[in-house]
Every structure is written in C-alpha cells, then in structure tokens.
Specification:
522 residues, alpha/beta, 8-stranded mixed sheet, 6-stranded mixed sheet, 27% helix
Length: 522
C-alpha cells in the first residue's frame, strides 16, 4: 500500500511587496525524497505525522517533493509553474498510488490562481483519478475553498494557535485515508463558510474567545458518525474570496450529518463575532503599560508553561502580570509569520523617544549585518537599522553601540515551538548593544521569534530584559509565554496590522463581518 506525500505550503500576504519567487523557495525549503524525511521525521510538523502513521499502520510512505517559504507576497507564475510541474510529474510518473497525502498551508495565492490550493488539489485529483483517496492537512490560518474540499476525501485542519498539534493532526489525516483505502470508512465532508473573520489579535486558542470555539470543535467530533471536525481561523491578509473563518465536518457516509455538524459549530461562533474582533492597545499605550508593570527579572530556568499532549496550549492567561519576568510586546504589524518585513522600526522608534532601557528585539537588516562584520567584534559603530524593505514599516532608526557577537545563523530548538519546527537559520547575524540600553539582534534572513534558542544561541538571556519585542501575534507564545510576566499585543502599523481598515481589499466577500453586518442565518 503506497501513499504519496507532497505539498506546496505558502501563506500568501497579497499586500506584501516581496514576491514569492522560485529562488525564495529554493532558499527556504525545496525538498525532494529523502530530504523531506531528514528535515521533518524528528520534528512535530505535519509530515512527521504522515511518516508516523506509515510506520504505525503499515503503509509505505513515499515522499515526493515539498516546497515551502516563509509568508511573503504573491507566488509568481514562474515559481508555481516550475514547482507544481516537477511535483505533479513525480506524482504521475511514480504511481500507481493507493492514497495521497498533501501538506499545504491553505492560504496560498499565485499570480495565476487566487485559490492556489484549490488548483493544486484539482491537479492532483486529475492525475490520480476519482477512486484514489486524497487527504490534505492545512494550517489553522487557511482560507479554505469549497474546491479544496471537493477535490479531497479528507481535509484536516490544525486546531491550535500557536500551532502545537501539527504532527497529531497530520497523523489523523493519514489514518483516515488509510482506513478509507481499507474500506473501513466512507468519508464525506462539508465546509461551512459564514461571512465573518477573526482578527489576528484574537486567534490565541488558549483563551477566549477562541478557546470555547475549539472546545466546540472537539465536542462535535464526538458525535455519532463524525470522523473529524476542523475549525479554520483564516488568514485576513490574503485578499481572496475565501478569506475568513470556516468549519469542516467529515462524516462516515452521511452527508446530512456532516452538514448539520459544520453548521452547528459555525452558528456557535457567529454569536461571538464581536468578541472575535475587539481592538488592542497602540504602541505608546503598550510601552507605558510595560514600563508600569515590570517587576523584575525572572530567575533562570523558572518557567510557567507546560504543554499538554499537543492538542491545546496549557491554560495560561498571557496577560496575567503577577510574577517576575520581562514584559513581552507582540508586534502585530510586523508579524513575520503573517508575511511581514521583519524590519519594522515603529516600536523601537517610540521606545527610543521614551528613553526605555532593558529593551530587546530582532531586526532584519543584511546591510547593517555586513557593516558590523566589517567592523568586527568589539567595535563601536553608528548604524541606521531597519525600515529598509518598504514604506509600511517605518524609517531606519539611528543607533550607536558595540558589536558583541557575530554568528553564521543556524540554531536548533528542542522546546515546544509554533508549527513544531526544530531547525532554524537567521543567516549571518549580529548581537548589537546600543549605548542607550537596547539589544538588537540583526539578521540577514527574515526571521520571526518563535524559538528562544534564537536568543540563547547568541548569548542573550531574554529573561534579563525589561521589555522584549516579539515579531508576531500568537506564534511567539510557546517560546515567550514561559518566561513572560505579561504578554501585551500591540496594534502597530504594517502589512499585518490588526487594523484591517488600512488595507484595500478587492476580492473579499461582501458582506463580511466586521466590515459589514451580514444577514447570516446558520
């Protein structure tokens, strides 16, 4: 019994000015065959779940090809054509197959195909025919189309944000396809797409309002005849018709059961649409809150975050400031995991003006890294850092300081991480201490802050700082919730701003809450 594994995973920010070219995929992840196993077998990622299921259930997993790059702009036609042609030729030439397992993100947009995931699954189905079961596992930020559901037998979505159950959900998808091939089940699925979205600042599944919606999803999965249920938060920075929340129910041979279950979950969420879109503080207010609430450094090794079996985050309140540790600010407008530039200076500029010390953050700036490398460790130099990608993320800020550490960039994280990844690479990077009490980690690659090993590997203990800025919203939580006295989400400007009124949408559905008040009857 042979199952093919393949996928193109991209979260496309259609407002980003950085296109997803073939070269971007090459620099990130363009893996073939055994390379996929080497990269992911020991991780907590979806592909690891597929490989685990193969070992435990006894089918042969055949990794074909996997393409992934960090969230940036629209995938070029050249990139999609070259990647999909090679990948689909592998699927065609190395068959026949008893099953297919796809590992896509679910919010991909190419120049030619606004619903790239729907087009990709259509092409897969065309190759393998109508009788070969096809499963796909998607990120919780997928904008899922009816086409994607129609082209697959099983569509499973991660249930946690930050994403800690990726391997578990991948294994579930593979098991359902295996049972389908064996004739044990007959999956029929239905997607409900109410006209609503959840703002990125309310997507943490460890607290309300999302927590109870995930609980509803888990509860619905216990209904008789239901094989799986999924909730997708959607991705609001892809300007496509499918943008928004969705619910999928998979029933065993009973389409009416799937429809009723998906609509029940969506109806529960519709009642919470206001709470799912409440605002958060701006930059100045957030920095004042952080200064007022900082108590002191957390003792080394003292952590308050213990992950459970991966199905959800531990029930920790991220805004409870009753203990020692840094105040961690989530830079929403420069959410690297959402397709931002990684070089926003909006927060650091205000922090400079306020005279804040004990401040730590990263900035993508290859030019500044090069200058530091040329100067050498121990040199004191002046730099203009950040704000160089576009005009949305601030202007470069002037800093004077010392080059403390120069490093090539790769590091490994064995603690829980968003998405279950283990190996990271910032590119050539520099630890730079400013004369006014700030530490800036300058990187040559666009890097988020989803692993504390990023800092430890550079000799930086974030526990020792007053304020840590993490470029993200939910993805840094597994890394920084364990050491933070408080997490403050900041509505900063940028290509991933929480203020969706700053974007010009041309393809989204109308009406769509919170832009309009639809007359939706679940």
């Amino acid at each position: 019994m042979r199952f093919a594994i393949l996928g193109i995973s991209h979260e496309t920010n259609t407002f980003s000015k950085v296109p997803a070219t073939y070269e971007q995929f090459e620099k990130a992840h363009l893996l073939r065959g055994q390379q996929m196993v080497d990269e992911y077998a020991e991780s907590e990622y979806t592909i690891a779940g597929y490989l685990q299921a193969a070992e435990e259930l006894g089918f042969e997993a055949v990794p074909l090809m996997y393409a992934q790059t960090g969230p940036i702009g629209t995938i070029t036609k050249d990139a999609y054509d070259r990647i999909s042609t090679e990948m689909l030729n592998m699927l065609r030439d190395q068959g026949p197959w008893e099953g297919v397992l796809i590992c896509n993100h679910g919010a991909a947009v190419s120049e030619e195909f606004p619903d790239m995931d729907g087009e990709f699954t259509r092409a897969v189905r065309e190759i393998v025919g109508p009788d070969v079961p096809v499963g796909i596992t998607l990120d919780m930020h997928a904008n899922i189309s009816q086409a994607t559901v129609a082209n697959t037998n099983v569509c499973v979505v991660w249930r946690t944000c930050p994403h800690l159950d990726t391997r578990i959900r991948g294994r579930k998808c593979a098991e359902l396809i295996y049972r389908t091939v064996k004739g044990e089940i007959n999956p029929v699925q239905f997607i409900e797409m109410p006209p609503m979205l959840v703002n990125i600042v309310k997507q943490f599944t460890g607290q309300e309002p999302m927590k109870s919606l995930v609980d509803d999803c888990v509860e619905a999965n216990e209904r008789p005849g239901i094989l799986d249920t999924s909730i997708s938060e959607g991705y609001p920075y892809s300007d496509v018709e499918e943008m928004g929340m969705s619910w999928i129910a998979i029933a065993d041979g009973d389409p009416d059961n799937a429809i009723a279950t998906a609509r029940w979950m969506a109806a529960r969420a519709w009642k919470k649409r206001v709470d799912l879109n409440r605002p958060v503080p701006g930059i100045e207010e957030a920095l004042r809150m952080a200064e007022e609430r900082y108590v002191g450094p957390k003792p080394e090794g003292a952590e308050n975050f213990v992950p459970d079996d991966g199905s959800a985050l531990a029930e920790a309140e991220p805004s409870a400031h009753s203990h020692l540790g840094p105040i961690v600010l989530m830079d929403v407008g420069d959410n690297v995991g959402g397709g931002s530039s990684a070089d926003s200076t909006h927060i650091i500029k205000v922090a400079q003006e306020m005279g804040i010390t004990g401040y730590l953050q990263t900035l993508y700036d290859p030019e500044a890294v090069e200058a530091c490398v040329a100067a050498g460790v121990g040199a004191e130099i002046a730099l203009d850092v950040g704000g160089k990608t576009d005009d949305m993320h601030g202007k470069p800020v002037h800093v004077v300081g010392t080059v403390e550490v120069i490093d090539d960039g790769p590091y490994e994280e064995t603690r829980p991480t968003h998405g279950g990844f283990r190996f990271y690479d910032d590119g050539r990077r520099v630890r730079f201490n400013t004369t006014d009490g700030m530490t800036i980690l300058l990187t040559s690659k666009r890097s988020g802050n989803t692993a504390r090993a990023q800092m430890y590997s550079m000799g930086v203990n974030p526990e020792d700082y007053r304020i840590v800025v993490a470029k993200g919203v939910n993805s840094p939580l597994p890394a920084y919730l364990p050491i933070a006295a408080e997490i403050i989400i900041v509505n900063s400007p940028g290509v991933t701003s929480a203020d969706l009124s700053t974007f010009e949408f041309k393809r989204r559905r109308i009406p769509l809450y919170p832009f309009e008040e639809p007359d939706y009857q679940p």
